[in-house]
Amino acid sequence: MKAFAGCLLLCSLAHAGVYKWVDEAGNTHYSDAPPLQGQSRGVAELNKQGAVSKPAESEAQRRAREASAAESAQRKRQALEASRHDQALAQSYPTLADLQADRERQLAVLQSAYRALELRDQGLALQQRQLRQDIERSRANRQPPPAAAVRDQQALGQSQRELQRQMAAKRAELDDFRRKMRQDLDRYRQLNP
């Protein structure tokens, strides 16, 4: 019977990839598909002749291999992106002065947007100060503050917090752009000595 099972196994090997693994109980299994759950001792892939074409690897070995492959792929993507960026710099700007002028124009646009946010913040602070004075005046006259003034003050406070968040994001964007601008200028100098 074992000879017949071995013969069947060899016949099935000739038609498709076969996987061999040992389960937790120590039993050896053969299948045309890998097990659904990873085995602690690993899964070996057999070729058509029944020889091991891909040795068994444990779950930890598989994870390490996959992490290494992902890291390698990431490095390749970064190298390709850097190459494309270098090519775009070289083709888009005939001189360093052209690149610098373009980046300074872009920086001026970002700075203008930040300045607009600053002016909006100053306007909100002025409105907030006026509302506070109105509320204090009402209290000094021993009257309850107008409900609309209290409501407006709360809305202005919320607007100011949102505006502060936008300003922080715009400052970060400006810092990032300045950093990239310096990198582009340095890289252009390296590409065109």
Automatic annotation (TrEMBL):
Q: Report whether Signal shows up as a keyword of the record.
A: yes
Q: Where is the composition biased (Basic and acidic residues)?
A: 56-68, 78-87, 170-193
Q: Which UniProt keywords apply?
A: Signal
The signal peptide, as residue positions, is: 1-16
Q: For the region Disordered, give the residue spans.
A: 46-87, 137-193
> For the DUF4124 domain, which residue ranges apply?
6-60
Coiled-coil intervals: none
Q: What is this protein called?
A: DUF4124 domain-containing protein
Organism encoding this protein: Chromobacterium phragmitis
